[in-house]
Fold Pantoate--beta-alanine ligase.
Amino acid sequence: MTLNIVRNILDLRKETAGWRAEGLTYAVVPTMGALHQGHITLVKEGLKHADRVLTTIFVNPKQFAAHEDLGRYPRTEAADVAMLAEAGAHLVFAPAPEDIYPPGFATSVVMAGPAKVGLEDKYRPQFFDGVATVVAKLFTQSGADFAMFGEKDYQQLMVVTRMARDLDLPIKVIGVPTVREESGLALSSRNAYLSKTEHHQAAGLHQRLVNAARKINAGQKPSRATAAARRSLALLGFKVDYVAARNAETLALPKSPDEPLRLLAAAWLGTTRLIDNIAV
Ligand code: PAF
């Protein structure tokens, strides 16, 4: 079956109104295209929660900084649509930039809370407001019951969850566990940039997080366990941006020994920046 692609909000609403008229539920999977197995897992998880799955493909200019080359972001729509059809998605929404940000567009979602905790936001200050703005629009345009986001981008998942709650958007944001290679390396389109040796080294990021979580569970102070992980990663050849233990929901620094924690890390191998996180 060929997968239907709609390119403007009117056509999207016609399709979703048809689903509603049939009494069907649906999930949205927001993406910027260049899909890999991690995205396909989101589609498959969406199919477990809802009768229909809508995937959006939109390279969002608002989440790119001036020095990040928006024009060079990979655009692989035909291959993406083929993967989505194979995975069982029902509809693709691939709008043009003018549909999302028409002339005169003047509204942004500006986030605090989990968007301002000194993790990814320290390195990409405009990123989460850009994400929150486009995701708020995609949620209201689609009117979906569920939204699927990967835990791989854990801070993004917390930001989007907070935004939907704060704006009373009637959608349930569902986090989907990270898909990993056998070595533990999280799947990411950036892994393609790693040399063979770096690819092998890269699994060290996940392993160091697992070690730190084990130590924290055995009673070690999170600050000590994360400092050891940073040192160990540096010895492995990583240039570490952060390894941090944070409250699993707010991403604030932990205050009490019994709150749920998440370990989050970002580090460079050569010219490739990798991120990962695990529950403690
Ligand atoms: O994770 C992404 O691909 C993007 O940040 C998202 C959520 C599709 C918003 O543009």
About this structure: The first strand starts at residue 4 and ends at 6.
